[in-house]
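INTERNAL AUDIT FORM
Audit reference: QA-55
Scope: verify that the stored structure record matches its stored sequence.
Auditor: D.O.
Record contents follow.
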Amino acid sequence: MLDEIYKVKLDDIFEGPMDLLIHLIKKNEVDIYDIPIAQITNQYLSYIEWMKSMNIDFAGDFIVLAATLTQIKSRMLIPIHDGEEEEEDPRLEIAGPLLEYLQIKSAAEQLAGRNFLGEDTFIRNPSKEERQMYSEGEMVKVGLFELIDAFQKILETISPDQRVDITPDKVSVRDRITEIVDILEAEESTAFDALFSKNVDKSEVIITFLAILEMVKLNLVRIVQHVQTGIIRLFYL
């Protein structure tokens, strides 16, 4: 079982529940004041289930926000009968805190002089190599939920019937960290896709995901994405 092997805790280094909600709003390209609550709630719950399956230990705030979204979704489904006064849009309960959170993040960005995306996760300024590599387009830092999206795309290429074989004698997150460090020490950086073999299996994807999360917590890597091409690269710190 995975939880007998490794557990990654989401401490302050990683984004919280509001960041996940903002990520989903941006991903779906919707207005904060006009959130398709059923769609966003279902996606939010899917991310939580995925993190649970990856043995990621996250704060209870994620569950609290999930309950809030579910409650708003339920209220949106209640029909309004003739003669009844229409209730204020329940989505405003989440829109207000979201805007306030974004304002706080924006203020923190100005004070810290960093990009908003992933500011709590990646703190180093781009190196000369990074600036040259991305000189023809915009470069953004990759946060936790963008990283989850990238791993989910890898998993989608694998047959759903494939069994996950994660046992102590087969895989080790620490060994995988060592392998990635060796690659980065030799090359200084590597493309995200290059970390997976041609015939990648689910076990390899899961262990690599956990290894990268741990490396971020240990401040060993910086992860960036080229906006125009979508290519993700890891740089050794």
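Auditor finding: record pair retrieved intact. The chain has two domains: 1-116, 121-237.
Action required: none
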